[in-house]
Design a protein that fits this description.
CATH topology of the largest domain: Chloramphenicol Acetyltransferase
CATH architecture of the largest domain: 2-Layer Sandwich
Keywords: Acyltransferase, Glycerol metabolism, Lipid biosynthesis, Lipid metabolism, Transferase
Structural class: alpha+beta
CATH superfamily of the largest domain: Nonribosomal peptide synthetase, condensation domain
Organism: Nocardia flavorosea
Pathway: Glycerolipid metabolism; triacylglycerol biosynthesis; Lipid metabolism
Number of helices: 11
GO molecular function: diacylglycerol O-acyltransferase activity
Strand order of the largest sheet: 5-6-7-2-13-12
Catalytic activity: an acyl-CoA + a 1,2-diacyl-sn-glycerol = a triacyl-sn-glycerol + CoA
Number of domains: 2
Length: about 450
């Protein structure tokens, strides 16, 4: 058994507080050939479950949340419970697959059993099929979800097993409680100045904006999903030409997409406000351990920037400025202190945060590093892979960026009634990336003012 860290537990409390929240993370894949039979699939999943105990464990909550939730073996574990088959309506193309993924994103996980499922779509296009692997955010963050999907695929000799799961915390004794209190005091004494100084910009970012935030509103029961893609070599050429990162390009592409959708709706983007949440991995190394090891930045998108160069410049400088303020370090320090505090008090704070009707952050943009190799599953080549992000906390638009097979893909999820619908944002992202590529030859490094 091992206990959940505060950030892992937070996604349980978010789901408790908001029935419309979608707290699953998914990887969708398109594969060559025919779908496997049920016995064939169950045999493969059994092999992978035997490797990773977390796949057969469920969450056990303590009464009144007096202790942190913990992972325990599911005595009624049945692989068949976690596998589903679905069929697409004609013409069984990309649009129908996206509609199915959107519908699946709202399906809740059964907390009495392990928090994952595998969906098989038997016919997709010509001589192809699709797979959607989804897990609760309590179990994985984006990077861990991608690595777990890789682990389910055929062995290539380059994949490594998950890093060992941490040992469960010992049952508290008076000595340990005193020791924990001493450590909290030490952390506070050593880091209080840094925590207060670095948390100021983060706190200011999360306060309600005066003119509201695009995408921040109540979530309905339905979703939209779309996929955009671009050649990874072209993206790297943009990075080299402008002196920016892939993450900068992704955020700037979302900026340009939102701007163009607003203009198409007859709205002035210069008068609109959209602050986004950008998760940042804080994993100490390349280990593939499950759980959430992330902090976040909250830059505001420069929707008033009229050209590709202006958008890249301002996104690059705003993200760099936020990193320099120490927001990530402040969050890490706060989460480290939270792990030493009484669980019931931490749970109460997290529940309050989940119910807080924030209007400052309107979108999520997360970048997940995809596999460097071509994957296969039961001998079928994985032709395409893209991610399904979560949608919660009144955030009505989420974009998950990942790379695979020479392409950079943007999986876009939105509330069905959002003013920024996923399909339009996805199409606009592709147009923005194409415009960036056309501008690379006459562009130099970004040296202009923010």
């Amino acid at each position: 058994m091992s206990r959940l860290h505060p950030l892992d537990s937070a996604f349980l409390y978010i789901e408790d507080a908001d029935a419309t929240a979608d707290v699953g993370i998914g990887i969708a894949a398109v594969l060559a050939g025919r779908a496997p039979s049920q016995p064939e699939l169950i045999e493969r999943l059994q092999q992978r479950v035997d490797r990773d105990p977390r796949l057969r464990q469920r969450v056990q909550r303590a009464p009144l949340d007096l202790q942190a939730p913990r992972w325990v073996d599911d005595p009624g574990f049945d692989l068949a419970r976690h596998v589903r088959w679905r069929a697409l309506p004609q013409p069984r193309g990309k649009q129908q697959l996206c509609e199915l993924i959107a519908a699946e994103s709202t399906e809740k996980f059964d907390r009495d059993h392990p928090l994952w499922r595998c969906l098989i779509i038997e016919e997709y296009g010509i001589d192809q099929w699709a797979l959607l692997f989804a897990a609760h955010h309590t179990m994985v963050d984006g990077m861990a979800g991608m690595r777990l999907f890789e682990q389910l695929c055929d062995d290539t000799g380059t994949h490594t097993d998950h890093s060992p799961l941490g040992q469960p915390p010992a049952i508290p004794t008076m000595t340990r409680l005193v020791s924990a209190g001493t450590r909290v005091a030490a952390v506070a004494a050593r880091g209080a100045g840094s925590l207060v100084r670095n948390a100021v910009p983060l706190t200011r970012a999360l306060l309600p904006a005066g003119n509201g935030s695009l995408g921040a509103g109540g979530l309905g029961p339905r979703r939209r999903y779309g996929v955009a893609e671009a050649n990874l070599a072209d993206i790297r050429a943009v990075c080299a030409a402008f002196g920016v990162t892939v993450n900068d390009v992704a955020v700037a592409a979302v900026t340009g997409a939102v701007r163009s959708v607003l203009i198409a709706q007859g709205r002035d983007p210069a008068t609109e406000h959209l602050r986004i949440l950008v998760p940042v991995s804080t994993r100490p190394g390349a280990g593939d351990g499950l759980g959430n090891v992330v902090a976040a930045l909250t830059p505001q998108l420069p929707l008033d920037a009229a050209t590709v160069r202006q958008r890249l410049t301002r996104v690059h400088q705003r993200v760099a400025r936020q990193r320099a303020t120490g927001e990530v370090e402040a969050e890490g320090l706060a989460l480290g202190a939270a792990a030493l505090l009484p669980t019931a008090s931490v749970a109460a704070v997290l529940r309050f945060a989940a119910r807080y009707r924030q209007q400052a952050v309107g979108a999520l943009v997360t970048n997940v590093i995809g596999p460097p190799d071509t994957l296969s599953f039961l001998g079928r080549t994985v032709l395409d892979a893209f991610a399904l992000p979560p949608l919660a906390m009144r955030i009505g638009l989420a974009v998950a960026v990942t790379s695979y097979h020479g392409l950079l893909r943007f999986g876009v999820l939105s509330d069905y009634d959002s003013m920024l619908p996923a399909e339009r944002i996805a199409a606009a992202i592709e147009a923005e990336l194409a415009e960036m590529s056309r501008c690379t030859e006459q562009s130099g490094p970004l040296l202009g003012p923010p």
